[in-house]
Amino acid sequence: MLYRREGFPAEDELVLSTVTKVLPHVVFVNLDEYDKGGLIHISEVAPGRIRNIREYVELGKKIVCKVLRVDQQQGHIDLSLRRVSEIERKAKLEEIKQEQKAEKVIELAARELKQKTQEIYEVITAKVFEQYSFVYLFFKDIAVGSVKAEKYIADKKLSELIQTVVEERFKPQHVQIKGYFALHCYASNGVEIIKEALIGAEKKAKKSVLAFLYMGGGKYKMTIEAENYKDAEQTIEEVTEFVVSTVTTHNGNAEFVREGQ
Predict the structure, then answer these.
(1) Domain spanning 175-258 has what CATH number?
(2) 127 vs 65, 124, 236, CA distance in Å?
(3) How much helix, strand and coil, in percent to the nearest 5, is found in the chain?
(4) Does position 87 have pLDDT exceeding 90, yes or no?
(5) Does the pLDDT at position 29 exceed 90?
(6) What's the pLDDT score for residue 76?
(7) 196-212 pLDDT tens trace
(8) Matching CATH number, 14-84, of 2.40.50.140, 3.30.70.270, 2.60.120.10, 2.30.42.10
(9) Average model confidence (pLDDT) for the chain?
(10) Are 252 and 187 within 8 A, CB to CB?
(11) How do residues 215-250 score in pLDDT, each as one tens digit?
(12) Which end of the chain has fewer beta carbons closer than 10 Å to its terminal beta carbon, N or C?
């Protein structure tokens, strides 16, 4: 991966790390984006008592950690593995995946121009990183037409090539999550209450596209589409809480089961 950040990470920042050494009470890692070392104390590997630390981490494994403390003078970075939620982990891995995809586009452009990938990368990021934290965010804006490559890339031939390749290969993608509601309301207007709960749920999905399909027997299939896992997971949490609360407070039963679980 070509992407590198300067300086030190901030506290609470999520960082992709590679396990470099495992001792009985501490794990040493390399922060891939910073090229700096960090450590995870056994108490921050997983909740509860750990008998064998190697059951949770292994040499060479990529893990997402949260930064606890940074001592720039000493060069120490303390990390936590257990404080990273599943939503945060997926979001970080998706971020890295998108950046690697952007770097593949740059690699393609370099081959086309018969130049070194690192040189092309530096030319592209010289101005891009003044505005964007990641190259893939710049490419996303190109793909949806909100910016032209030439705005940040002075070399005409390179900017035209990047514009073309990004439009072909960096089309916006969506995350999709599915699940089922089992809803039964015994109030005299139970049908209307369930209907209001589902309509209200759709209004709450501000960062996602939400759709319901009645399957019969009080079962409703729910599909959520969002730009990333973070938005999709947030929508699920808000929607399920709203639907379950609305139905159960009106003499009903409500249960949500996520597909695949």
Answers:
(1) 3.30.70.1130
(2) 29, 7, 38
(3) 40, 25, 30
(4) no
(5) yes
(6) 96
(7) 999 999 998 888 899 99
(8) 2.40.50.140
(9) 93
(10) yes
(11) 999 999 999 998 888 888 899 999 999 999 999 999
(12) C
Closest CA to 102 of 149, 134, 145, 126: 134
- Within the chain, all domains assigned CATH 2.40.50.140 are found at 14-84
Task: Report yes or no: 224 and 209 within 8 Å, Cβ to Cβ.
Answer: yes
Q: In what order do the strands lie in the sheet with 175-185?
A: 208-216, 219-226, 175-185, 252-258
Token reading at 144 = 């949806």
Tell whether pTM > 0.85. no
Burial class (CB in 10 A: 0-12, 13-18, 19+), 218: middle
Q: Give the Cα separation of 88 and 214 in Å (integer).
A: 32
Q: Which amino acid is at 197?
A: A
Residue 14 to residue 220: CA distance in whole angstroms: 36
Q: CATH 1.10.150.190 region(s) of the chain?
A: 87-169
Buried-exposed string 49-83: b where 16+ CB fall within 10 A, e elsewhere: ebeebeebbeeeeebbbbbbebeeeeeebbbbbbe
The CATH architecture that domain 87-169 belongs to is: Orthogonal Bundle (1.10)
